[in-house]
């Protein structure tokens, strides 16, 4: 949208340069840790959340009415979905390892373990759908095809992205909570039990979904 906006809009955005620079430094810090393989669960993502909120504010204030390439928009969204899916898959696998350690061989799966399995299937289906979308989205240089989305379609897509974002954040919080709980164990042979995992899931949902929280079995599915 910034590539096609008029000069006045660009000047307004340029007036926020110093704030943008601050947020850029926050991103550079996280990227540097990622390159050094030093990212860990205890690292606060508050700065990243603030950066994302600021960019959303800039977009809604200055760029939401600008015309832009729908094809580029969809390709960007599919990248976001795949990255979120990767993150979700990694956190789910970590939780599954702990679940296998905590569950008794002769017992049925816990309700939360069943939920996790359902989310794994849903995540795989989502990745397959993203692959189909990528194949169907026309390239910018394709003069014979174009992509047009109405406002309702865009609203539905962005709502789905918000839901995926909250789901990913919740599982990050669950893993972070489990890591903290493991560090508090006094005995090296002690294990996190199923009830601990479920309790941490409830706390994570409450933190991420806030007033919209309905617990993991409603919010996460």
On the 0 to 100 scale, the average pLDDT is 86
Cα-based radius of gyration, to the nearest Å:
21 Å
Give me the oligomer status.
single chain
The CA-CA distance between the termini, in Å, is: 34 Å
Number of strands: 0
Strand content: under 5%
Could you give a short account of the major beta sheet? none
Number of domains: 2
Uncertain runs: none
Q: Helices and strands: which structural class?
A: mainly alpha
Helix fraction bin: over 70%
Overall shape: it is globular
What pattern of helices and strands is seen along the backbone? HHHHHHHH
- Contiguous helical run count: 8
How would you sum up this structure, described in words?
The structure is a single chain. The chain folds into 2 domains: 1-68, no CATH class; 69-219, no CATH class. 10% of the residues are buried. With 221 residues, it is mainly α. It has 8 helices and no strands. Helix 2 packs across helix 3, helix 4 (70-102) runs parallel beside helix 6 (151-183) and helix 6 crosses helix 7. The radius of gyration is 21 Å and the shape is globular.
Keywords:
221 residues, mainly alpha, 2 domains, 8 helices
List the helices and strands and how they pair.
Blueprint: H1 7-14, H2 17-35, H3 46-63, H4 70-102, H5 111-136, H6 151-183, H7 194-209, H8 216-219
Helix pairs in contact: 2-3, 4-5, 4-6, 6-7
Quick recap of the structure?
71% of the residues lie in helices and 0% in strands.
